[in-house]
Amino acid sequence: MKYIASEIGFVTKMLSWAVILHVRRWQRYRADVALWISSIWLTILAQGIFIFSAYSASGGNFFGYSFDDVVVFFAITLLSTGLAQIVVHGFTLRLADAVWRGDFDFWVVQPVHLFLRVLLEDIGLVWFWPHVIIGGGLLVWILPLSHVWLALLVAVIAAIIEIGLIICVCVPAIQWGRWNPNEGLWEYLERSRSIPLGRTKNMLLIVLSAGVLQYSLALEVFTGRLHLALFFALAIVIVTIAWFCMRYFVRKYTSASS
Amino acid sequence: MWTAMLRMFVQQQVVHREFWLVLLLNAVLPVVVPLLAWIALAQSVDALQIEGWNIATFTQYYIINFIVYSLSFTSIHSEMGNLVRTGQLNFWILRPLNFFGLSFSFSLARFAVMLVFCTFVGVLVQLTGIAEFSREQQLFALMVLPFSVILLMLLNMCIGMLAFWLIECDGAFAAILLFLQFFGGLILPLDLFPTWLQPISTILPLRYAFGLPSEAVVTLAYHDIPQILFGQIVWIGIFFFATSILWRRGLRHYDAVGA
């Protein structure tokens, strides 16, 4: 018990340090942050316009979703991608570079488990708070309190799935330092989560949108067409696969392996 | 020498295994996914037309956008950001080779690789009947689309120059491009924008790269050619001028160990 408490204390301390250092670092580069934040607000606006234009163009017959469902989908996607990117942003950004330079040796020998390193390396709080604020704010604003908790819960589970998927795609960089899907992956995630796909029968669309399907499933859970336990089980499966992938590649890693 | 550089950059593009995945993620999916979404929507509402668009015109529109987007997919802004951030720009400034020549070779190499890819896609699309373009439409496209590609490449270059003033620039670059491309009509035809937002698109450059040329090719709107070409040339001039200014000012700001 004492051991677990000390481990939790240690991890909490590391996490608080990660947040403090992250904020201190980006306080020095306000121009970057201001440019990013303004462009991310505009990007969110663009995504909102796309989904609502599609909804209007369908004359209200939008795969059987009501207007409120569409708003909830938009809010859930923003909230969960924000939460996921806050956790995994630095990892995707730096992993390939760390392997390429040989710095990954130091990631592996740190006392903190490598899975936690995903969070500690560089959190994405400064970059992705607009997603969380708008997504969370919309949910609280439009939904009655009794529904907000379910929406928040499915958003968190969708975020866990997204983290798992991103880790799965990025960890091959441990073996091949030139493998760096960072920007492409981010753009894919940003661009492909445009509309809910849970009720479409277009298989090609579903396959090509596989990386963003968790948001559509989250909406299906919220609208009662998919059981929460199944969605949670999917998250566990994805995270387990990510854990095994990471373990596999770390075991195969030899210093400066690229 | 330029041929050698071009050859080297082409080899660099294709030798990296991740290139094709990044290509898929960056160039193919952003255009294909919205197209499939519209097709699914049209099928689900069982309508022949959505706001004047049908499946055939949607398909043509997005395929044209895909070709323009892929051919201009140089990522020169990203490379520029790396060169400045790591300080490697020093070596290029000191070498007898002109830096703009280097950038041009890099862009041309990407263009050459993508041209092969797009030609393959174009032939495939035409042969399988996914979208059929008449001879007139093909000629029309040859008239207006080259300027679209040049315009996009210069925009990339111009955004890349911001690296002189920024540190963590990749994300900001991507977000700026995402926004401009959206309001240019890459993933949503300009007609389908809410009326109150259309003025924003009017004042932004990329409607002359995606929205207007693609719509004109789809509808064979000959009378729009002068306006489109004029807009493209004006924006090319603006970006060329802005790139030169930013380059000169950026170099003064550059302290040789990164921005």
How do the helices and strands line up, and which of them pair or pack?
The complex is a heterodimer of chains A (258) and B (259).
Chain A: H1 2-27, H2 30-57, H3 67-101, H4 104-109, H5 114-120, H6 125-142, H7 145-170, H8 182-192, H9 203-208, H10 213-222, H11 228-252
Helix pairs in contact in A: 2-3, 2-6, 3-5, 3-6, 3-7, 3-10, 7-10, 7-11
Chain B: H1 2-15, H2 18-45, H3 55-71, H4 76-86, H5 89-94, H6 99-128, H7 135-160, H8 169-184, H9 198-203, H10 211-219, H11 225-253
Helix pairs in contact in B: 1-6, 2-3, 3-6, 3-7, 3-10, 4-7, 7-10, 7-11
Large-scale geometry of chain B: globular
* Low-pLDDT ranges of chain B: none
The portion of residues assigned to helices of chain B is: over 70%
Overall structural class of chain A, as computed from helix and strand content, comes to: mainly alpha
How many domain regions of chain A? Answer: 1
Query: Helical proportion of chain A?
Result: over 70%
Main pleated sheet of chain B: none
| Beta fraction of chain B | under 5%
Order of helices and strands of chain A: HHHHHHHHHHH
Oligomeric state of this protein:
heterodimer
**Outline of chain A, from the CA principal axes?**
globular
Radius of gyration of chain B in whole Å, from Cα? Answer: 19 Å
Would you mind describing this structure in some detail?
Chain A starts with a helix and ends in a 6-residue tail after the last helix. Chain A has one domain. The mean pLDDT of chain A is 86. By secondary structure, chain A is mostly helical. Chain A is globular, with a radius of gyration of 19 Å. Chain A has helices spanning 2-27, 30-57, 67-101, 104-109, 114-120, 125-142, 145-170, 182-192, 203-208, 213-222, 228-252. Chain B is mostly helical and 259 residues long. Chain B starts with a helix and ends in a 6-residue tail after the last helix. Classes of the chains: A mainly alpha (258), B mainly alpha (259). Chains A and B meet through α2, α8 and α9 of A and α2 and α8 of B.
